[in-house]
Amino acid sequence: MFMKKFLAGLAAVVMAVTIVPSASAAGTTLLTNVRTGHHPTFDRVVFDLTGAEPGASVTRTTEPTSCGSGKPVSALGEEFLEVRLQPAAAHENGHSTYPGSRKFETGLPTAQSVAFTCDFEAVLSIAIGVNRKNASYHAWFTTDGPLRYVVDIDHN
């Protein structure tokens, strides 16, 4: 009798676990890589994504802060372009989908650093440290192949 009740309870738990959707199934886009590159007139930061195109915005800030604590995030740059993707994440089911560092210097002259500022409740924010204030930039999604969000920061 005990074994029969135990197995029935276990089956209920397994059924409950299997119907919980993953982050990507719920519509959250996942970050898989961050790449940077130097070009003759601009520096480029590329966010490789899987899933559907999320909402995106870029805002300027003089000091990036962590969304969890509100504390400053230390990174190289005179000003920061904070990229916000939503719904998006760099993890799924407790596992990272992004294998790289969450804060690094790029070695580029204009886009000097990249620092994650938020990866919580389907909000992913990443600050790009720029070598000067009011740098002009262009940001867009590419959908002709893998989904990517691209930010080009002009050298001048």
TrEMBL record:
Residues 30-155 form the AMIN-like domain. It comes from the Bacteria. Keywords: Signal. It comes from Lentzea aerocolonigenes. Pfam families: AMIN-like (PF24837). This is AMIN-like domain-containing protein. Residues 1-25 form the signal peptide.
